[in-house]
Amino acid sequence: MQFHQRGVDLLVTVMDAIDHQDKLQPDDLDWLLRETAHVLGELLKRDVPVERRDDTSIANDI
Q1: Quick one: angle between helices 26-46 and 2-19, nearest 10?
Q2: How far apart (Å, rounded) are the C-alpha atoms in residues 27 and 17?
Q3: Which position among 1, 17, 32, 54 has the lowest Cβ density within 10 Å, counted as fewest Cβ atoms?
Q4: Considering only CA atoms, which of 33, 43, 49, 51 is closest in space to residue 4?
C-alpha cells in the first residue's frame, strides 16, 4: 500500500508541476524526473506479464 500511495503522491506532484512549470527550479525538475523514473520502474517490475517473466528467467540462466 505504501508504494501505491507513493504513486498517488507522485501523480499529484506531476499534475501540480504541469500547472506551475514556470516556477520549477532545475533541482525540482531533476528530482521529479528521477522520482517518476523510479516509481514507473518499480511499477513495471510488479506488472511483468507471465510470458515475459518466463523469457527473462531463461535469459538470466544463459
Answers
A1: 140
A2: 13
A3: 1
A4: 43
Q: Is 49 helix (H, G, I), strand (E, B) or coil?
A: coil
Please give the DSSP secondary-structure letter assigned to residue 59: H
Contacts for 32-37: CB closer than 8 Å, 24+ residues apart? 35/10, 36/10
Does residue 36 contact residue 10 with C-beta atoms inside 8 Å?
yes
Yes or no: say if 34 and 26 are a contact pair by the CB < 8 Å rule: no
Question: Three cell numbers at 17?
Answer: 508541476
